[in-house]
Amino acid sequence: MELRSIWQYGSNSPENSNHFATISQWWHNLNGKEILWQQRLMPATAEATNLNWEPQRFDEKFLVVNPTIRGITLYWQKPDSSQERSTTVHKLELDQLHQQLYIFPQSQKEVVIRVELPQVALQTVVMKNPQWQVTPNGDTYLLTLRDDRQKVVVQATFDSTQMSQLKQQLP
After folding, report:
1. For residue range 54-79, what is the model confidence (pLDDT) as tens digits?
2. How far apart are CA 140 and CA 157, in angstroms?
3. What CATH number should be reported for the domain holding residue 112?
4. One domain for residues 112 and 135
5. Within this chain, do residues 137 and 56 fall inside the same structural domain, yes or no?
6. What per-residue confidence (pLDDT) applies to 140?
7. Chain-wide mean pLDDT for the chain?
8. Which domain holds residue 79?
9. How confident is the model at residue 99 (pLDDT cuts 50, 70, 90)?
């Protein structure tokens, strides 16, 4: 799975249609979920991900209803309204790792909209030189990290592809 999918209107990229399908599916799967809708001005030289996305006055949090894409237009409703809202886009960027969709409206090239699923707070555990063990289990591998000083054990299961990628990234 790619972590970032970018679709751009008129692009000749061979991945453009696949990225559009991925983004369409993500948008459709928002139905009935709470989202954070944020809109920012986009300087010509900036990246959307580098803008200030700290909460601002006009940001909205709401349940999205009937999200669909027809052509290059995104449609949705709010639960307390029968009015269908829409925006026609020239570019979409999906960050699957952070569950954020950046929407670049065709009518307002200087604006970017970020739709985000509220984040779950993740806990970071720092271990210095933990004991470790890899246990094969059929076509998966169990990686166990153990820190007796902190009384913490972390276990992660990897398939063979993920294990190969992990081995390649180790020095």
Report:
1. 999 999 999 999 999 999 999 999 99
2. 7
3. 2.70.180
4. no
5. no
6. 92
7. 92
8. 4-116
9. very high
Question: What does pTM read for this prediction?
Answer: 0.70
What pLDDT does 49 receive? 87
Tell me if 44 sits within 8 A of 36, measured CB to CB: no
Residue 124 forms part of a structural domain: no
Which of residues 42 and 103 earns the better pLDDT score?
Answer: 103
Report if residue 45 sits inside a domain: yes
25 and 76 together in one domain: yes
Instruction: Let me know whether 101 and 68 are in one domain.
Output: yes
**Distances from the Cα of 68 to the Cαs of 18, 85, 117, 145, in angstroms?**
17, 11, 17, 43
Q: What is the 3-state secondary structure (H, E, C) of the chain?
A: CCCEEEEECCCCCCCHHHHHHHHHHHHHCCCCCEEEEEEEECCCCCCHHHCCCCCCCCCEEEECEEEEEECCEEEEECCCCCCCEEEEEEEEEEECCCCEEEEEECCCCCEEEEEECCCCCCCCCCCCCCEEEEEEECCEEEEEEEECCCCEEEEEEEEHHHHHHHHHHCC
Are residue 30 and residue 71 in the same domain, yes or no? yes
